[in-house]
Amino acid sequence: MDIHAAGLARGPWQGTDPTATRVDGHNETCHVVGNVWFTSYHTRPGGTRHDVLAVRWGQEPVFLLNADALAWMAETTLRPAFQIRLVQALPWEQTLTAAELIAHLDAAGIRLNTQQRPQVWDALAIAAYHAQTGMPIVRWLLSDDANVYTWDHRRPRAVLGA
Question: What is the arrangement of strands in the sheet containing 38-44, beginning at the earlier edge strand?
Answer without folding.
Answer: 38-44, 26-35, 13-23, 140-142
